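Q: Structure tokens for this one, please.
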Amino acid sequence: MFTRTSNTKNKHPRVFTYINIRLIRLCFLLRRDIFNHRNINLLSFFNHSFIINIYSDDCQSALKYLKDTEMNLNNVLIITGDFNIRDNNWDPLYLHHSIHADTLREIADSFTLELSMSVNQAPICYTDNSQDSNLVLYLVFSISM
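A: Here is the predicted structure, written as tokens:
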């Protein structure tokens, strides 16, 4: 498990990245020297390839950080996480478009990554309230094959 350490009482990390023990030979490292944000885990592995795991809060602070930060990263293979963005591009039951989805797409495009859609496009977050609709908030952007 990779996560940042808490630097104050109110600034606990919000993102954890779990790597299967079978992949330990790839030598994963948490790279706070490149991205230093409590809602972003940047992991490098093997031959300097990268995985970015994001938790996007209600202010979209992680996306704003990535958009505003000069990035010279090659070999980003995956951006994944809980983006907390409802959008009709990945949630067919949601009828609206979010401007935050555009920001997320810009960031993914800057790394030449594409949204990976599941075959059945089923919601991942299920609400307890029958009045609310289920949600698609967890996304994966990866290199295109």
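A few notes: Confidence is low (pLDDT under 50) at residues 125-132. The first strand starts at residue 29 and ends at 30.
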